[in-house]
Amino acid sequence: MIRLNDLKISYRIGSRVIDAVDGVSLTIPEGCIVGIAGESGSGKSTLMKAIYGDIQAPMYISRGSIDYGFNGSDGRPVTTANIRDEWFKTISYVPQSSMNSLNPVVRIGKQFTDFPGTDRDKKRVLDRATAFLGKLGLPPEVMTSYPHQLSGGMRQRVMIGLATFFQPGLIIADEPTTALDVVVQKEILMLLMELQEEMNNTILVVSHDMGVHFQVTHKMLIMYAGKVVEYGDTDSVFADPQHAYTKMLIDSLPTIGDDSMRGVIASTAGAGGDRAFGVGTGLVEVKPNHFVSLAKETAGVPA
Amino acid sequence: MTLILKTENLNKVYRRGGLMGGKSISALNEVNITVESDKPVVIAVVGESGSGKTTLAKTLLRLETPTSGRAIVYDTTVAGPGATPSKRDFLGLVQPIFQNPFEAFSRYRPVDTYLHETARRVAGLDEAQADRAVEEALRNVGLNYDEIRGKYTGQFSGGELQRISVARALIPQPKLIIADEPVSMIDASRRMIIINLFKRLRDEAGRSFVYITHDLATAYYISDYVAVMNKGQVVEFGPARAVMSNPSHAYTKLLLDSIPTTKSRWRPRVSRAG
């Protein structure tokens, strides 16, 4: 389990300090997919970077801490200080537009054997990787291909293959399917869910698409203006959203076949900018495993 | 009935490779669409990457010349044999809105200069008239000219900038606006601002739209007609509600089944004990 203790992450730009994540306290249990939603600038990518341990100037942890609660490949407890040693061992990261993150001049097979600390026996790694990619629906020829020879969907499968090959306990995926078409997106998301059920690891998925979240996640974390405004079991959050911002996110997109929605969705969505919704200081458990942060004076009502 | 849009056996073939043995790709393959209506309409063109929907948009915008076939917009042939309007007449009839507003405008020029240029060159207005036209167009998209004047792209959000793109397209009073993925670069929670703007411009200002998108949900929400494209062909075309509530082509069904909805799940999600 991962525990965030009053975590505050800031950026120092010249003499200015910007708090991108402002006092987040919550616990992420093991073995579940957690979806993170919120608009650009809400702090979700910063929080993911901090959990991944990629903390570099001008970004820094200005208050609080992260407890990882699991041991690294060498048996030591993982901490913010040593987490880098765990990258691509017990923790992996699928960055945004990751299908363009493969090294363009290195064949796919070599990208599997190139990890630091991997099995010395390259032949054995290649055989295992070929079999593994086969399970993800990729033909063996992929191993000898360069990234540009593959379609976007295939590259995305390769990226997910790279991220899961070492059976990491934690995977962080930032918008893993945004650049893909719906048909391919569904294949990739199904694959991700199957792999997670097999490995029973923790996956954090950042996405703009509430539909993707509903399909894939066990828990939802909603961010707004640097704070977590709602956190809970996905079914509970979608069935009974507590925060006005969460409601707006869920209601903001039309549904096919729902004629009552056709042509009448108000365009209040997002109007009013960054401070349109009230945000309280801490999360309160309103239902079992369902937390919300409500500001007293503006609770439930967009300003 | 007004003929709003008609394509007749529209084909576009791209050739790749050398003089001999090169490869041909049919980006548009016998595309036939006819939309006649008394009222302005939104025509959605949906499909995946490589389906030919952007090539169709470019052909209608005269950015690509069709290999064969014709396209007619409001009784004017705009592409293929007999396409006669001058560039200025054409841009007074059909206007584009592009996917990425940050790329549509230069970073080094104030955004409102583009609106002015359209007013002067395409609409043929003088300086004072242009100023008024820009102000009115911006008001139509819910923006205030005084807050836009002299500002650069970096000073706006994607949604604001896309509304400015819509305002620019409105200045020559075009009959048809072709919007290629106009909301894919905008935050999900703000997309409906642009979509509702199209709806209002159709209903109140009498503009028709060709709305190119891979997002079937917004297409269903706003469109009167929908064309589903796959591999250069229109596999299904008809009234939006009929096509999307009751698809007859297997590919349309596949597309609709692949949309992640918040109503029913592809795979059960067991809530883990927290």
From TrEMBL, chain B:
<keyword id="KW-0067">ATP-binding</keyword>
<dbReference type="GO" id="GO:0016887">
    <property type="term" value="F:ATP hydrolysis activity"/>
</dbReference>
<feature type="domain" description="ABC transporter">
    <location>
        <begin position="5"/>
        <end position="256"/>
    </location>
</feature>
<dbReference type="InterPro" id="IPR003439">
    <property type="entry name" value="ABC_transporter-like_ATP-bd"/>
</dbReference>
<dbReference type="GO" id="GO:0005524">
    <property type="term" value="F:ATP binding"/>
</dbReference>
<dbReference type="InterPro" id="IPR013563">
    <property type="entry name" value="Oligopep_ABC_C"/>
</dbReference>
<dbReference type="Pfam" id="PF08352">
    <property type="entry name" value="oligo_HPY"/>
</dbReference>
<dbReference type="GO" id="GO:0015833">
    <property type="term" value="P:peptide transport"/>
</dbReference>
<keyword id="KW-0813">Transport</keyword>
<dbReference type="Pfam" id="PF00005">
    <property type="entry name" value="ABC_tran"/>
</dbReference>
<dbReference type="InterPro" id="IPR003593">
    <property type="entry name" value="AAA+_ATPase"/>
</dbReference>
<dbReference type="InterPro" id="IPR027417">
    <property type="entry name" value="P-loop_NTPase"/>
</dbReference>
<dbReference type="InterPro" id="IPR017871">
    <property type="entry name" value="ABC_transporter-like_CS"/>
</dbReference>
<keyword id="KW-0547">Nucleotide-binding</keyword>
<comment type="similarity">
    <text>Belongs to the ABC transporter superfamily.</text>
</comment>
<dbReference type="GO" id="GO:0005886">
    <property type="term" value="C:plasma membrane"/>
</dbReference>
<protein>
    <recommendedName>
        <fullName>ABC transporter domain-containing protein</fullName>
    </recommendedName>
</protein>
